[in-house]
């Protein structure tokens, strides 16, 4: 309730780190609260990151350092200014009309997951803004678990690192993270949906840039000579299949290509695509197919020239996690210990965890309960948040239980 009232919206157009200075308002508050719990090793930096350590209290020597991570920013898609959270302490199953905009109605019909929260507490915004449960619920859950460890020193665990990141929503959550300083072997983001869900797979993602050079001649004397790059570009877009191979026609494990921007002048047109698939082979075949399609279109415009460039964006974290199966296995066990069923999910997108997994910290994503994210109808069940905090506690204990044996097997 407190964290969501602090405006931390990130800005996709900014080139600064953090993209918005106001994110640090929450970083500073979190650092203060962590110190208030009695945690002495707490650090914030100029980029808005917060690093903190809960020292090991287990006598075992070789327990890997585990990081729990959440992002402090909220999505640019929807206002995050003057968020007024409402705690509905007892949700009775009826429609909830949000007070600041009567057109915003939360109902079981549109959000069936609400049904599981009848008789329990939920938190909504007031109708004018998003709630920011993405990912301040993750922040709250990590803070709650930290407080639990500080107040219950008899619960054994290894060294725990806490990390709060800025700018996840604009794809820069790991841009300025200091992995050396973080010093964690494995990590978990708390940035997922329904209770029990565990995400160990993300898209692999590339950008593709098709540049078309036309042939430019004075338009008064251009007959039979001029080739307009904008028209060639339009023809390339028109040649894309209408009923497949796009975000609007795919789901589940299907990949796609998606034009996101076209810029140009008659002489030169640039089309930017995003390309997505769960497998690298799939990604590769999307590139080949897109390039072949562009080549065949451009050939119909003699004189026009096409260039195809690939930009790697992020990779499916599963390729890394499969090399360290205990990371996901322990998370499944921890979720089960809270009494929940594990729901394994694939994310049709990327997370900070996909980037962390490739820069040295294998990092699946654990639920917090957040629903209808990036919208005015965002909500979360307080019981789910409590279960997420419980999951962190069990997970830390499992790493401690397996401590020495696990590591000698792994040769770490
Ligand atoms: Zn998030």
Briefly characterize the structure.
By secondary structure, the chain is of the alpha+beta class. The protein contains 9 helices and 17 strands. The chain starts with 22 loop residues before the first helix and ends with a helix.
Question: Would you mind describing this structure in some detail?
Answer:
- With 412 residues, the chain is an alpha+beta fold.
- The chain is built from nine helices and 17 strands.
- The protein has helices spanning 23-36, 133-151, 179-182, 229-238, 280-298, 318-321, 325-337, 352-358, 382-410, and strands at 42-44, 50-54, 66-71, 86-88, 96-97, 105-106, 122-124, 160-165, 186-192, 197-202, 204-213, 256-265, 268-277, 305-314, 343-347, 365-367, 379-381.
- Helix 2 (133-151) crosses helix 9 (382-410) and helix 4 packs across helix 5.
- The two termini are 41 Å apart.
- The relative contact order is 0.18.
- Bound molecules: zinc ion.
- Residues 71, 134-135, 168, 191 line the site of zinc ion.
What descriptors fit this protein?
disordered C terminus, 9 helices, globular, binds zinc ion, four-stranded antiparallel sheet, eight-stranded mixed sheet
Major β-sheet, in short?
8 strands, mixed
Rg, alpha carbons: 24 Å
Q: Mean of the pLDDT scores?
A: 95
Give the SSE string. Answer: HEEEEEEEHEHEEEHEEHEHHEHEEH
Label the overall shape: globular
Which percent band covers the strand fraction? 15-25%
Poorly predicted residue ranges: 407-412
Number of helices: 9
Strand order of the largest sheet: 1-2-8-3-9-16-10-15
Please estimate the helix content. Answer: 25-40%
Report the bound ligands by name, code or SMILES. Answer: zinc ion
Alpha carbon gap, first and last residue: 41 Å
Which structural class do you get from the secondary structure elements?
alpha+beta
| Annotation, overall tally of beta strands | 17
């Amino acid at each position: 309730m407190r964290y969501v009232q602090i405006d931390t919206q990130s800005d996709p157009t900014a080139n600064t780190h953090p993209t918005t200075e106001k994110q640090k308002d929450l970083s500073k508050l979190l650092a203060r609260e962590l110190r208030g719990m009695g945690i002495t090793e707490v650090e914030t930096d100029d980029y808005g990151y917060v690093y903190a350590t809960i020292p090991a209290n287990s006598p075992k020597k070789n327990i890997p350092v585990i990081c729990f991570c959440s992002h402090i920013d909220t999505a640019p898609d929807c206002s995050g200014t003057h968020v007024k959270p409402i705690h509905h302490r007892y949700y009775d199953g009826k429609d909830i009309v949000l007070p600041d905009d009567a057109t915003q109605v939360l109902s079981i019909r549109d959000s069936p997951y609400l049904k599981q929260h009848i008789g329990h507490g939920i938190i909504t915004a007031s109708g004018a803004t998003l709630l920011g449960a993405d990912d301040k619920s993750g922040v709250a859950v990590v803070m709650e678990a930290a407080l639990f460890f500080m107040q219950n020193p008899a619960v054994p665990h290894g060294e725990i690192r806490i990390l709060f990141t800025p700018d996840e929503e604009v794809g820069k959550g790991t841009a300025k993270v200091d992995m050396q300083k973080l010093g964690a072997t494995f990590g978990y983001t708390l940035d997922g949906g329904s209770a029990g869900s565990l995400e160990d797979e993300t898209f692999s993602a590339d950008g593709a840039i098709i540049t078309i050079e036309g042939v430019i001649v004075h338009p008064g004397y251009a007959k039979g000579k001029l080739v307009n790059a904008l028209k060639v570009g339009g023809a390339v877009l028109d040649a894309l299949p209408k009923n497949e191979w796009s975000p609007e026609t795919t789901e589940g494990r299907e990949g796609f290509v998606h034009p996101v921007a076209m810029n140009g002048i008659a002489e030169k047109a640039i089309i930017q695509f995003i390309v997505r698939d769960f497998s690298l082979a799939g990604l590769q075949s999307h590139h080949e197919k897109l390039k072949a399609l562009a080549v065949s279109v451009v050939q119909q415009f003699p004189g026009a020239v096409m260039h195809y460039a690939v930009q790697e964006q992020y990779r499916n974290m599963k390729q890394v996690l499969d090399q360290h199966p205990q990371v996901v296995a322990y998370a499944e066990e921890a979720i089960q210990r809270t009494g929940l069923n594990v729901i394994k999910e694939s994310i049709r997108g990327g997370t900070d965890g996909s980037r962390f997994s490739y820069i040295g910290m294998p990092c699946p994503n654990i639920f917090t309960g957040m629903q209808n994210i990036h919208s005015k109808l965002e909500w979360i069940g307080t019981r789910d948040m409590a279960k997420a905090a419980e999951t962190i506690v069990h997970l830390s204990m499992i790493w401690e239980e397996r401590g020495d044996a696990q590591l000698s097997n792994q040769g770490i």
